[in-house]
UniProtKB/TrEMBL annotation:
The lineage of its organism: Archaea, Methanobacteriati, Methanobacteriota, Stenosarchaea group, Halobacteria. This is ArsR family transcriptional regulator. Residues 290-325 have a biased composition (Basic and acidic residues). It comes from Haloferax marinum. SUPFAM superfamilies: Winged helix' DNA-binding domain. Residues 278-325 are annotated as: Disordered.
Amino acid sequence: MNEPNKHSDGTDTAEEMTATFATLGNETRLRIVRSLWGVPGGEATFSELQAAVGMRDSGQFNYHLNKLVGRFVQKDDNRYRLSSAGVLVLGAILSGSYTTSDRVPPYAFGDACLNCDATLLATYEDEHARVFCPTCPTFTLSTYVPPRILEQYGREQVHVALDHWGRLTVETLRLGICTNCHSRVDPELRHQTEDVDVSLVAYECERCPKDSQISLGMYLMRDPAVVSFHHEHGVNLESEPFWRLPFLMEESGDMLSEEPVVVEKRIRAGDEVLLATIREDHEPEDSDKDQEGTGREVHHRSEEVHSRIDVTFEREAADETRVEQ
Ligand SMILES: [Zn+2]
Ligand SMILES: [Zn+2]
């Protein structure tokens, strides 16, 4: 069996990464990767691939192809196809993150700030889409959006691309996957009280430098309790953009406890409030001790300590004068 990627655990050393970029820093090899993606069925013989790439010199073609075989290209029974690493690299090339940069100056798209009613603006710079209120410094959303996506949405659709890509990012993190290197990441509940109170969920990747943070509201927005609560009040969380949802834009919950962190957040819709209590739950530090009979989840790798977040919900009336229907 072929082992296209012997470093499937993702632990590339700096030297290996330099070699990776050297391998791909060549026009012909990039063309081979792109052509191999384009051939019917995603695989080709040597001569089919050579024809697809359009290179006459078989010796030269063979030289470059062999540089890719093993890591980016798999060879089985004299047929070539992209390895998983090759597909990832191709995705990065196509999304434009290594090659393009573009800027869209701030424009209005017709929605107003929930705090002050000023016209919201959207902009794109440094591969980040941003929706912000020109007068409230805290009313701002920003996320990485690949340039290629923007090209397809159109320049005055930055806000739409932000909403869509933002949802994908939130979902990926909620599933415990790093958006950069696809390693496992764990949620960490944080409550900061400097200047403005901010409650957020942070995901620090141990395999790559990516540290991500999402608001508490975004962490909760896919929870069935939150979805159905809004549904009952005529709000579709799938279609309503981030900046129209107060619970997503409010930065803070109320801190009930610092150690462990426990935060309470009120989500309002109509005349009702959904009260969410969010607590961080660390695996105990002596997690490698015998835990038989405790009912705790047993981890395959006892040296890793994982954190998770527990949420409980309660409903309450928004005020005393609530009218029963
Ligand atoms: Zn505002
Ligand atoms: Zn990562």
